[in-house]
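ok so I'm stuck.
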Amino acid sequence: MQRRRGIGDKEIKVLRMLVEDGRTTYTGIAKKLGMSPAGVMKKVRKLEEFGIIKGYTAIVDHAKLRKPYKYVIMVKTEPGKHLEVAKSIQENLKESVLEVHTITGPYDVIVKLLAGNSEELNELLKKLHSIDGVRETNTSLILETIEERPSVVPEDVKLPILTKESKEE
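replied:
not stuck anymore, here's the structure
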């Protein structure tokens, strides 16, 4: 019997459980899904090999680390410089940056970052404005976060998800 190389329903169920609680044990997942822990481990390895699971991390309460303020900064760049600027922002503002994205629309880059106070924000903005290719910024303080999730598994995932190798067969 030939083994299926793609990602199927069982892998997606395992993935959903890990996204919901990354500390769930293989044994806990196995009990809920009627599988063996070894079977769950194989499913997780497959998800990692396919690059669907990219890594594992802790979710931090930044306010408890004296970084209570989050900002969204929209950045306009010189034409054709958006990717270069985005990478420079990540490199120059490292430990304060939560996210950096190149985007469409009137702005070219969006940055989400942390600061402990207005003086720290001012220093970060000075660094950002010193980056070659930055033309203009628009900064907004995030007042309240209603929901913040590092990952989701969409309900409408099309299965099976196949590898390049299995598509060619």
